[in-house]
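Lab meeting tomorrow. Please check the following:
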Amino acid sequence: MHVLLASDGSPEAFDTARLLGRLPFDVKPLVTVVTALSTSQFEMLSSNAGTKLLEVERAAAEEQFAELSEILASATDRVDLVIARGHPRRLILKIAQEQQVDLIAMGARGHWAIHRAILGSTTDFIANHAKCSVLVVRSNAPQALKENPAAPLKVMLAYDGSPLSQEALRQVSQFNWGDSTQLHVRMLLERPTLLPDDVVYDELTMSEQGKLLDQLVEAAAFQCPSTHAVTETVHVGSALRSISEKHRNDLLFIGGTGKSAVVQLFLGSDSRYLLHHGECSIWIARPTEWSETSSKH
């Protein structure tokens, strides 16, 4: 497992490292920390002031790397550092492709973002364009982990039967979660908007999908206790957000696209909704060598 941790020195970069350190990978991952230095279209960086700025930024990046390495020390095989000039989004995707990483991990917002109301533009771009899985960490989600590092993780998997939803299921099953982890799998079926809440729209499909989910969860053999359910909803993304908040999840696994996605590369509407409006950290699953060659399956 090879993880690229995008670091800009923001609190969320350190929260990302803390959450990575809590994830029970089947094999300790290699982590590459990537920091982008300033660029300028006015060639300022060729001046004495620009050279000094780069020196200051590089020194800060190396200091931050030392702190990140300490956080990740017990959970990783090795932690490397890459510092380079370039636009963050382009640099991160370039290095991810060159090193064939399995996961890009980054904060939902950071110093790179001109803070949008909900999600930083760099994170949004990478979540949509990365060819590997992406972990987007929100600082409010790891708060309990900072206050109590031994607190059990609360994890949810959103499943809709699409190929990348199946990939998310496969990736969740790779972890050695342990008995203290709380895992919930939820399948949501869309229903008409005008139907009363207490009326089931399609009982036959609910029953069929419930049996299918029973079989999938049994076959997955999660390394922790788990619950699962199939329910109907008008808006899948909004319902998943509400369920996740109710369960007070630390991490939500979703497929990179869903059944309604038109373009494979970009996130489906429900995935985008959760990425922008969810309260917990989001793992966007895309096919990786790590999940395909795991010794467990």
Remarks:
- The beta strands are 2-6, 30-37, 78-85, 103-107, 133-137, 154-158, 182-190, 226-233, 251-255, 281-285.
- Residues 48-72 form the longest helix (25 residues).
- The longest strand covers residues 182-190.
- The chain has two domains: 2-137, 152-292.
